[in-house]
Design brief:
Layout (H helix, E strand, L loop, with lengths): L33 H7 L18 H13 L7 H4 E9 L2 E4 L1 H14 L4 E12 L3 E13 L13 E13 L2 E9 L1 H7 L4 H7 L1 E2 L29 H14 L5 H5 E9 L3 E4 H15 L4 E12 L3 E13 L13 E13 L2 E9 L1 H9 L1 E2 L6
Parallel strand pairs: 1-6, 7-14, 8-13
Antiparallel strand pairs: 1-2, 3-4, 4-5, 5-6, 8-9, 10-11, 11-12, 12-13
Helix pairs in contact: 6-10
Length: 375
C-alpha cells in the first residue's frame, strides 16, 4: 500500500462550473430604469443575437439604447451601423428611403429640439435571430422647440407627445421602420394651429383615381368576428378592433374593455371610462363614414399571470364626408399608418395607446395640391 508523503496536501476536486441560465430578456412589466440598461451593457447575451454589437444583451436593450445613443447622446453617425443602406421608413407623410435620408431627417429634428428626451415606456417584440426581430417601441418625448424646422421659427416653448416606432431588425441593422407620433399635441403646445398650418402646406400628388374603401362587399353587411378568450391575446385584440372599427360594433367597448379603461389617443388626449372612448370612436367614424382599419402586424409579450401587452400596426383609409373636428367635409381620401398598444388584465383591455399622425391627416384634407414652388 502506497503511503502519502509527509505534508502532502490532499487533492481536492473542484466542482465543474454550473451552467448558469441567462437572465431573462428585459421586460417593461418590471419597469426597468434607463440606468439598468446601461449597467447591463457587455454582460453577455440574454438571448441569441447573431450579428449584433457585443454590448447589447437582448433585443429590448438594443432598441432602447441605440435610440438613446443616436438621439440623446448625439451619436447620429451610428445610423450607419444601425440602419441598412437601403432602409425604408414609412409614415403617414410617405416613405423615406435609404439611411442617408434617415441621417438628414435626424439632423433636422435634432436642430429643432436639441434637448429631446425620448423616454422609453414599453417595447413589445417578436421574432428571433434567424428570421429577424420586430420591435414596437413606445416613447414619450419631451423637448423644447428651440430650433428652425418646416413648421417655422423657434417658439422656445416646451412640448411632449407619444411616439411609437415599429422596426424590423436583422443583425444589428434596422431594415424597415414604421413611425407614428402625436404631432398635433406638440404643435398646439408650442402655440401653433395645426389646421392653419395644414392649409398653408402643399402636397405633391400626381392626379390619380381611387377605388372604394375595402370594408365590405357591395351591399352585404360587414363581417362580425367571434371574439376569442383573452388568453389568445393577438386574436382577441384583432377581433375587437375589427368589430369596433369595421363592423361599427361600438358595444365592443363595454364588452371587452375594463370599466376603468384609460385610453391615450391623438391630440394629447387621455380618455377615462367607456363614454369618452365610445365618443372618440363614433366621432372619427362620423367624419369618415366609410373608414376601414386593416391590421398589418401584431406581436405580444407577457403571460396570463402577469398580463399581456399587444402591439398592433394598422392602416386606416376613409373619405372625409362627415362633420367633425377636422373641418368641413372635403371629400378627400386619407391614408394613415397607426399603432395600438393594449394592456390586457383579467380578461379585459385595461389600458390602450392609439397613435397616429393627425397633422398628416389634416394636410391630406386641407393642403393645396400641386408641385412645390408652383403658384
Amino acid at each position: 500500500m502506497m503511503k502519502r508523503a509527509v505534508n502532502q496536501k490532499p487533492i481536492i476536486q473542484k466542482p465543474e462550473p454550473a451552467n448558469l441560465e441567462p437572465k431573462p430578456v428585459f421586460d417593461f412589466a418590471d419597469r426597468p430604469d434607463i440606468q439598468t440598461f446601461q449597467d447591463a451593457a457587455n454582460t453577455g447575451r440574454r438571448q441569441p443575437m447573431k450579428g449584433f454589437d457585443d454590448d447589447y444583451v437582448d433585443i429590448v436593450d438594443y432598441i432602447v439604447r441605440c435610440t438613446h445613443k443616436i438621439w440623446e447622446e448625439k451619436a447620429i453617425g451610428l445610423i450607419y451601423t444601425h440602419y441598412s443602406h437601403n432602409a425604408i421608413v414609412h409614415s403617414s407623410n410617405g416613405i423615406v428611403y435609404g439611411r442617408e435620408a434617415v441621417v438628414r431627417n435626424t439632423l433636422q429634428s435634432e436642430a429643432m429640439t436639441p434637448n429631446l428626451r425620448a423616454h422609453a415606456d414599453d417595447v413589445i417584440w417578436g421574432g428571433n435571430e434567424t428570421d429577424g426581430f420586430y420591435t414596437s417601441h413606445r416613447v414619450f418625448d419631451t423637448s423644447t422647440h428651440s430650433g428652425f424646422s418646416d413648421i417655422g421659427a423657434p417658439t422656445g416653448r416646451k412640448f411632449q407627445r407619444w411616439v411609437i416606432a415599429d422596426c424590423f431588425i436583422i443583425e444589428n441593422k434596422i431594415v424597415e421602420e414604421w413611425l407614428a407620433f402625436d404631432a398635433t399635441a406638440g404643435l398646439r403646445q408650442v402655440g401653433l394651429d395645426p389646421l392653419e398650418l395644414a392649409k398653408k402646406s402643399r402636397l405633391e400628388l400626381a392626379p390619380s383615381t381611387l377605388g372604394e374603401v375595402d370594408r365590405g362587399s357591395g351591399q352585404y353587411a360587414p363581417e362580425f368576428h367571434d371574439v376569442p378568450a383573452s388568453d389568445h391575446p393577438q386574436a382577441f385584440v384583432a377581433a375587437v378592433l375589427h368589430n369596433l372599427w369595421n363592423a361599427r360594433l361600438v358595444n365592443m367597448v363595454r364588452a371587452h374593455y375594463a370599466p376603468g379603461i384609460v385610453s391615450f389617443v391623438p391630440g394629447g388626449q387621455k380618455l377615462y371610462g367607456f363614454g369618452d372612448l365610445e365618443n372618440f370612436v363614433i366621432t372619427l367614424m362620423a367624419s369618415f363614414p366609410d373608414l376601414a382599419l386593416t391590421i398589418d402586424h401584431q406581436c405580444v409579450v407577457g403571460s396570463q399571470a402577469r398580463g399581456y401587452r399587444v402591439a398592433t400596426r394598422f392602416t386606416i383609409r376613409g373619405t372625409h364626408e362627415g362633420f367633425g373636428p377636422y373641418g368641413l367635409p372635403t371629400g378627400r381620401r386619407v391614408f394613415l399608418i397607426g399603432m395600438y398598444h393594449h394592456e390586457i388584465r383579467d380578461g379585459k383591455i385595461a389600458r390602450e395607446w392609439l397613435v397616429f399622425d393627425e397633422f398628416a391627416l389634416l394636410k391630406q384634407l386641407h393642403a393645396r395640391i400641386g408641385v412645390s414652388g408652383g403658384g
